[in-house]
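Retro notes
What went well: the complex prediction finally ran end to end.
Inputs used:
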Amino acid sequence: MPGKELSDPCMNCHEAEPEFTLRSRRVCQECYVRFVAFKAFKRMENYRLRKGMPKTGPCKLLLPLSYGVSSTVLLHMLHKQIEVLQSKSHGPAGFEILVLVVDPSTIAPLPLPEYGFDRIQETFPRCSFTQLPFHSILELDPDVHQIMSEYAGEGFADDTSNSDEERLASFRTSISTATSKSDVDRILLNRFIVAFAKKMECRGIVWGDSDSKLAAKTLANVAKGRGSAVTWQVCDGMSPFGLEYNFPLRDLFTAEVRTYAGLFPELAGIIAHDAPPSENVLTKNLSIDELMIRYVSTQGEKYPGVMLNVTRTASKLQSSGASSVGPQCSFCGSFMPTTNVATSTNSADGDEQLNKNLPPQFCYACARSRPDLRC
Amino acid sequence: MPPSPCATCHTNRAVIIRPKDRSKLCRECFIHIFETEVHETILATALFHRGERIAIGASGGKDSTVLASVLKTLNERYDYGLELCLLSIDEGIRGYRDDSLETVKRNAQQYNMPLEIVSYGELYGWTMDQVVAQVGKKGNCTYCGVFRRQALDRGAARLGIKHVVTGHNADDVAETVMMNLLRGDLPRLARGTSIVTGSAASEVKRSKPLKYAYEKEIVLYAHHCQLDYFSTECIYSPEAFRGSARTLIKDLEKIRPSSILDIVRSGEDMAGLVPAEVRGKAAEEEEEEGVAGGGCGSQNGRTRGGEMAEMERKLAEDEAAQDRETEIKMPVPAPRKKQTQKTGAPNKVKSQTLGTCERCGYISSQRVCKACTLLEGLNKNRPKTAIEMEVALDDEEISSTLMRQIEKVELGG
């Protein structure tokens, strides 16, 4: 029996009623989901088929979950991939996903969906889950104790009789500006996640960042003097920590990730949506990270492709150059480029002072975020 | 609140909050520190050698005026043994350049330096006002940039000088880093931050001694030294990517004053990470970032947005084309591009063989140099269609604008 003639069917399958505009084509829901999920599917190919790695044995990947849209959608997509993998009797060994939740309420006071952790465990039974408070970093990565005091300098006295929670909190409050705070938090979180991944013997980390997050991250890193770190901060490949970094949602626009999330009711109770950016904040009180997220989202409305291209450009930089050898910063772990006579002599008094006060093991950008600096 | 003393000499009253690090300084200490920093940049990069003759690209604007003043001071104070002179380009923009040239003429007397003026009108037979009358405001910066590069070289040659210094400051360099990231221009990302930008195509090397000096400090220096400079900006339109980058950098500076230097630092680090095969591309053409100190592209964030919109459109088309191509993958560029390349060799990375332009004798990797190609277009009264292939092969930056125009012309019949 011939079905109802559609005057303007989905431009992809030509069968269903189109409901969404996907990169200027009108498509139906099924085709939309397929397209969006396929982007992440393709990015996981190497792990799914075990390309260039042992075909048997475990292949554990850590997925850090923030309850944000992107990381939750990534978890949803990868969980589906695992379901399909496991349904095949002679399929490839594939990968397994370990999820780490650094309890967001221990990072910033944010309202969270109740029972979020229970819900994700029910929703994604084929992954294993761990939730830890932020201050567990001091247990997982014992080096952090010493580095905290060295990094924070004289203004900070680490009281060893205090609990880990209090020690971390007092270190974080010793960091002065919004930019430095968010920079230091990012470094600590990265260390946390890396330490956990290593403890669990993971091969790599899959990050939820979508294209606009990565573009903002690229620009923010450049603005913070971390230009040489973009190669691992936003690119797929080996990080300085001996773990592979992957960003399976890198080809998706944030709007697409959001639309995808809206199509699965089971995600609604999990995702903690970011508060809309406040209009009343003075630019100078923002952190560089926030400024870049705003910049990318406002510019991205008009020029999404240009923003996507920022990350692609950064990905073309060679990580395996002279940058991946030599000393590593003892705080952020980046390789420190040994070039630049120039910037180290750029300000007659400022940097000279800086060099005198600093133990040499902090990189240029980490030195910028230290509490005793004026700027 | 009692007046605070200077953070350096502790005796005089502080009258300046330093933009770079917000330290409070007196007038004398600020001037001294500013000069010393430029001196240290010059020493650290071994920029000059004794007896070298230097042409200062002078526009009459704040950057080049400060550069001339500081170089004269340092040359005397530290006995560099340099022979300095001023070199100005007269683009022929009424109400802008004619007035600023008067400033340069006064500077030449004040600093007791010889002055050479090279004009577009004399060199090419076209002033920028005439070019704009011909091609319109859109894309006129392309002409100006190509012409200026050659004009500076020719001016230097006329003076027998092999080293031109320009007034680019840290803000300009940071802007260029951000802009090249936004444009996805890796070759320029690799080159943009180096202090000396000599190129194989020219005997004249360019350098920017104020590379680490903040724009705001340059203004303060000019103010406190009571320098005579001209503060109007070019009346023609700036480039959208630069405008967007400029706004962003001004915001960053508010958040963290050091971020301008941090971006320069990032740019230097990233330059080392650009793959060699990308880096060498189009070495002939250096970008003109408002040479001779804020000559162009310096309108505070005022943008037309056209370039960004164009690039957005192109990227979206590429993406769509890629999606359509999933079944048959061909190792050739997207079909859309073929149209513009039909008359010549494919646009591939090639090593450049340098010769001279057969018309004007300027060094060029092409039979006819780019300025002559543009001129031919102007002279034929058909600026957009006549320059197709040479430009496409010649330069990946300027061609992007031109290619689009060509495409439009071709597609539109």
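What we learned: Chain A has a mean pLDDT of 85.
What to try next: split runs per interface for comparison.
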